[in-house]
Amino acid sequence: MNFDRDSGPAAACLTADPDGFEKIVDAHKASIMAAAINVLGNREDAEDACQEAFIQVFRHLDRYDPRKSLKNWILTILYRRCFDQLRKKRRFLSALYRVRMELPPETSAADPIPDKKGRLRAELLNHLNLKERTALTLWANEGFSGQEISEVLGCSPSTARVYLCKARKKLKTILERNP
Amino acid sequence: MRHTKFIEILWAAAPFYSWKDALFRRHIENCASCSQGLASREDARRVLIQKDEVGDLAGLWPAVKNGICGTPGGVSESRRIGRDVREGSRFLFQKTGLGWAAALAGLFLAFFATFWLVRYFEQVNGRGGGSIPTGINEQVQVHYINVGGEPAQTFVFQPYDSNIVIIWAGKTAEEK
What value does the mean pLDDT take over residues A6-30? Predict the structure, then answer.
């Protein structure tokens, strides 16, 4: 069985077989993890999101429409996990911020100096919102069209194209600032 | 100017989403000045993490498998239990019609609790019908108290600067 691309019928028959599901995970884990890191900005959160996304995919395989791309469906679930992850993190950070107000500032000597790509990615995280980052990642890494991005984001194709345009415009500005 | 505004409003309200989408897409693809202001796919790829850069993912499948199979005591197990409870309660309330009964019971409880609280606070604040008047100008009047079928000796006492009124009724001493 080939699980590289749209493996609808195969996925549908694997509902009760975790070992068979391993092939689906193996086929998609690298691109899913790359998307999660690009959207969330760090590996730990991305691993959690990927893990939860794959578990959810397995549990809801019966809801998968075999006529559509399996990868798109996994990415849709991943996007929702990332959204939840960021919401939880924002709540946690706001609580942490209140605690840290009373502590002395940490020294940044232990932090490694990021390379150019790391700096650009940090700027990208700061300037692009979740939907823009997702649209840009899907467009650049996966070669998705506006229609496919809209299916993942759960919006209309024109709205997805607006997100993508905004993301590309912001990226252009960042790249011009950091030649 | 007014004419332009009218066309803008009409344009925004018109339900031609697919047409507008096509126009927008064609504009972005063909307009040179707009294209110059946008980063290319190669630029984006240079900044974003690619799938060959994610490193070792050997730990992902065991973690997913644990989640799927439900490791006892793990997070996935608790989530599974939570899902089962949710599904069970959904079945109980939606299929058996217990939802209405539960809602009515909840409303009744809320009504009873509100009624009790209002009554309690009225009594505490001294506005209730059965309360003892304790204002400065208010007095406690006792017409008579019978103890053992006979009029009793009655004392009404209010400590200074207090809301408490003590009523003492004692059996009258028998005459010899």
Answer: 66
Tally DSSP H helices, then E strands, for chain A. Answer: 8, 0
Determine whether the interchain pair A161/B25 forms a contact, defined as Cβ–Cβ distance below 8 Å: yes
CATH at residue A123 = 1.10.10.10
Total-model pTM: 0.56
Q: Verify that A97 and A24 share a domain, yes or no.
A: yes
Q: Would strands B150-151 and B153-157 be described as parallel, antiparallel, or unpaired?
A: unpaired
SS3 A110: coil
Note whether A118 and A100 are same-domain residues: no
Judgement on whether residues A19 and A48 belong to the same structural domain of the protein: yes
- Give the residue numbers in A contacting B (CB under 8 Å), as ranges: 18, 21-22, 25-26, 29-31, 33-34, 37-38, 43, 47, 50-52, 54-55, 58-59, 117, 120-121, 124, 136-137, 139-141, 146, 156-158, 161-162, 165, 168-169, 171-172, 174-175
Domain ranges of chain B: 17-49+58-95, 132-176
Residue B50 with chain A: CB contacts under 8 Å: 34, 141
**Do A119 and A98 share a structural domain?**
no
ipTM of the complex: 0.73
Q: In Å, how far is B58's CA from the nearest CA of chain A? A: 9
Tally the domains of chain A.
Answer: 2
**Same structural domain, A68 and A117:** no
- pLDDT one-digit tens code per residue, B6-25: 777 776 776 666 677 777 77
A69 and A99 in a single domain? The answer is: yes
Domain that holds residue A172: 113-179
- Which of B29-38, B57-66, B123-132, B144-153 has the lowest average pLDDT? B123-132
Distance from CA of B76 to the nearest CA of A (A): 9
Query: From residue A75, how far is each of A81, A82, A150, B18, B48 by CA, in Å?
Result: 10, 10, 12, 24, 16
Residue A6 and residue A75 share a domain: yes
Alpha helices (H) along B91-126: 98-125
Q: Do B48 and A137 touch (CB under 8 A)?
A: yes
Confidence of residue B26 (pLDDT cuts 50, 70, 90): confident
